[in-house]
Write a structure and sequence with these properties.
Layout (H helix, E strand, L loop, with lengths): L1 H25 L1 E3 L5 E3 L4 E3 L6 E9 L2 E13 L2 E9 L2 H5 L5 H15 L4 E11 L2 E10 L12 E9 L2 E9 L4 H8 L1 E2 L2
Antiparallel strand pairs: 1-2, 2-3, 3-11, 4-5, 5-6, 6-10, 7-8, 8-9, 9-10
Length: 189
């Protein structure tokens, strides 16, 4: 009985310690070069303004995980996002689940997230800073019920490093900073 109580007490203390540490490490900080870095996400990216963090609880089958979504709203219809998610290792190591299937699932989820307002119009391999992934574009779907005032499209990239996926997205009207933002993404180490 005392042994079980001790184990529970240690588990609670460990969880509290991890929660207070992870809050600090998940926030982005500005680097000397003016870009933003995430220690917990292990990446640097050139947001045009300081992003805000939203942690989203997610479930894949019986597995629970968190999505760390950093967003910077730089004006009306100019939204920059960088997010990462750690998939359960067995999913990414499974022979029945390829990277291409993972990319396609992320793209289908993105389309569903916007309820079909955007349609995938471009998908191609991309390389940058020793990372390989895909570049994608969505345009407004002419067959969808597009909400009034929605303009532009979505451009982004997806990279996998081990069981972690990084998704970089710009949502809005075309502008000069998009490529600079997407191409600036790199790992810290």
């Amino acid at each position: 009985m005392k042994k079980n109580l001790l184990i529970i007490l240690l588990a609670i203390l460990t969880l509290n310690s991890c929660q207070s540490q992870s809050k600090e490490k998940t926030e982005m900080y500005k680097t000397e070069s003016g870009e933003y870095a995430s220690e917990s996400g292990n990446f640097i990216i050139d947001f045009p303004i300081k992003p805000r963090l939203q942690v989203i609880d997610n479930q894949m089958g019986t597995d629970k995980c968190k999505i760390y979504n950093y967003q910077a709203v730089a004006g009306q219809q100019m939204i920059y996002m960088a997010e990462y998610i750690d998939f359960p290792e067995y999913i990414m190591k499974s022979e029945s689940w390829t990277k291409e299937q993972a990319y396609n699932q992320i793209l289908k989820t993105l389309e569903a997230k916007y309820r079909g307002v955007f349609k995938l119009t471009k998908q191609e391999p991309t390389k940058q800073h020793n990372l390989e992934g895909i570049y994608f574009e969505y345009s407004l779907n002419p067959n969808a019920n597009v909400p009034r005032g929605v303009k532009g499209g979505i451009k982004g990239k997806i990279f996998f490093v081990g069981n972690r996926s990084y998704q970089l997205t710009y949502l809005g009207e075309e502008q000069e900073l998009i490529d600079k933002y997407l191409n600036s993404f790199r790992l810290i180490k």
